[in-house]
Amino acid sequence: MTPHRLSRDDARRIAVRAQLLDAERPADPVEVAEQVGWIKIDPTAVIAPCEQTMLWTRIGEAYDPAHLRKAVERDRQLVELDGAFHPVSALPALLVHLRSHAEHPRAKEWLAANTRFRKEVLARLRAEGPLLASAIPDTAKVARSNDSGWWSDNQVPRMLELLSLRGEVAVVRREGRSKVWDLAERVHPAMPDLTLEEARRAIAERRLRAAGVAKHSGWTPVQDAGEPVQIEGVKGTWRVDPEALAALDDDPGGRVAFLNPYDAMLFDRPRLEAVFGFAYVLEQFKPKPERRYGLFAHPILMRDRFVGMLEATADRKEGVLHVQAVHEFLPFEEEEREMVRQEVLDLARWLGLPLSDISDV
């Protein structure tokens, strides 16, 4: 079909709305996950962990962390898998997709060498679960290499993670930051059997709905989902969600949003630069002298443009929110400065922390 044509302004508006970052707020974590696709789990809490800031940024002052726990642990509407919370509706396709990754030759070789260990882990969960990984003995015959430094030498967490990708075990809940595991059959609902092709098509459609507009392949591969579109001043043919395109004239307007560096909106760096003109670099792993905006500065989205970076720290020991700087890419208008100031005040209220110095904002 003949590609649609979009201005970059309209492409940005579609992308912002698809990520629930416009003026119309979602109601709860399940609604966020269904639309955004996934809620990244990351313990870095310079302000708050990613799973919490992603939800507060979208829902606003009505969001309480207890809402996320309820959706995961009691209502079972969200499930933790592969480092993120996903809606249960996405699980059939996601598990088929992840199982294909778990069939990597090195993973299969390690599992084959540890057949007895795998059976012992599953037997322990069947008899005693739910359990923390620390309650399961490490009887691995062959250890996986730890060159990256991301894992401990204990092989139980590695086995559990791999078995979760295979759909054999699942996370029931967390105790602090530690995962509590059980057999997947006692956690996941009954699901339809999908072929790998059906799963990939369903995932591509979800990705496009979450992005609004994305390239056929790349960081957010949507393949042939949606419809072709050309964006003014942007190279290549993209894909657009037809429902998002049809709703373009109903845009409720924008607002200010502070985005955790691991927020889903920031994942596709090439799209950020092509459509938003924002070359985002996470400075967390840069040496301090090379940082421009700070260790874990949060990008500031204003309506459909990235306008600056919030450098702030929630100091629980002192009981304050320190705002080291609001870095402005271009000088703010007075109205824009007030919008950012009000969002900082809302952030402080949500955290339950006073600002260390209100004049810094």
Topology at a glance:
Layout: E1 4-6, H1 8-18, H2 29-36, E2 39-40, H3 50-59, H4 65-74, E3 78-81, E4 84-87, H5 91-102, H6 105-113, H7 115-128, E5 131-132, H8 156-165, E6 169-175, E7 178-183, H9 196-211, E8 213-215, E9 227-231, E10 238-240, H10 242-246, E11 256-258, H11 269-276, E12 298-302, E13 305-315, E14 320-328, H12 334-351
Helix pairs in contact: 5-9
Protein model, in words:
- The strands form four sheets. Strands 1-9-10-8 form a four-stranded mixed sheet. A four-stranded antiparallel sheet has the order 11-12-13-14. The protein has a three-stranded antiparallel sheet with strand order 2-4-3.
- The chain folds into two domains: 4-76 and 196-356, no CATH class; 88-186, Arc Repressor Mutant, subunit A (Orthogonal Bundle), CATH 1.10.10.10.
- It is globular, with a radius of gyration of 22 Å.
- A hairpin with a 2-residue loop joins strand 12 and strand 13.
- The protein contains twelve helices and 14 strands.
- The model has no long low-confidence stretch (mean pLDDT 94).
- The protein has 361 residues and is α+β, with helices and mostly antiparallel strands.
The percentage helix is 25-40%
Question: Nearest-angstrom radius of gyration?
Answer: 22 Å
How many domains? The number is: 2
Strand order of the largest sheet: 1-9-10-8
Share in β-strands: 15-25%
Mean pLDDT: 94
Structural class per helix/strand content?
alpha+beta
Question: How would the global form be characterised?
Answer: globular
Number of strands: 14
Q: Please trace the helix and strand order, writing H or E for each element.
A: EHHEHHEEHHHEHEEHEEEHEHEEEH
Largest sheet: 4 strands, mixed
How far is the first residue's CA from the last residue's CA?
A: 50 Å
Count of helices? 12
Q: Segments where pLDDT lies below 50 for 5+ residues?
A: none
